Amino acid sequence: QVQLVESGGGLVQAGGSLRLSCVASGRFSSLNVMGWYRQAPGKQRELVADITSGGSTNYADSVKGRFTISRDNAKNTVYLQMNSLKPEDTALFYCNARSLYALGSFRDYWGQGTQVTVSS
Predict the structure, then answer these.
(1) How confident is the model at residue 28 (pLDDT cuts 50, 70, 90)?
(2) β 114-119/10-13 pair status
(3) Alpha-carbon distance 93 to 47, whole Å?
(4) CA–CA dist 45, 111 (Å, integer)
(5) Cα dist. 26→42, 64, 116 in Å?
(6) Which of 120, 44, 35, 26 is nearest to 69 (CA)?
(7) What CA–CA distance (Å, rounded) separates 110 from 31?
(8) Helix or strand run (H / E) with residue 39
(9) What span, in angstroms and rounded, lies between the C-alpha atoms of 105 and 28?
(10) Residue 68 burial by Cβ neighbours in a 10 Å radius (0-12, 13-18, 19+)
């Protein structure tokens, strides 16, 4: 089983910055993809950014140029540096980790979420 623990959320003014961290622990062979999703009230959960173990990244259009995802494989940790935050970034941010298996199967793991609130 894999446990994901997020930290770094909080309240910030528009234009400010926050850095989220997520540490994975437990028994696992490889966390091929790690990433961040967010869910605002009344909206569906959406991908913010993800990163493979090799360092390839993927971002939602709404955060490109403002957010940067990185990971430390030795520490099983993924980070999300968020700059130029906007009120519309307000959401519960979830850490995700995905292990890939043969024939396209996979297993997802989720953290409990950390709240990010951006005031105008």
Answers:
(1) confident
(2) parallel
(3) 10
(4) 13
(5) 33, 32, 26
(6) 35
(7) 12
(8) strand 33-39
(9) 15
(10) middle
Number of other residues whose CB lies within 10 A of the CB of residue 118: 20
Contact 99, 107 (CB under 8 A): yes
Contact yes or no for 6/21 (Cβ under 8 A): yes
Residue 29's pLDDT band, with cuts at 50, 70 and 90, is confident
What pLDDT does residue 1 have?
A: 84
- Are the C-beta atoms of 79 and 19 separated by less than 8 Å? yes
- Token look-up 């990971």 returns 71
- pLDDT for 35: 98
Q: What rounded mean pLDDT belongs to the chain?
A: 96
Summarised one tens digit per residue, pLDDT across range 33-52 is 999 999 999 999 999 999 99
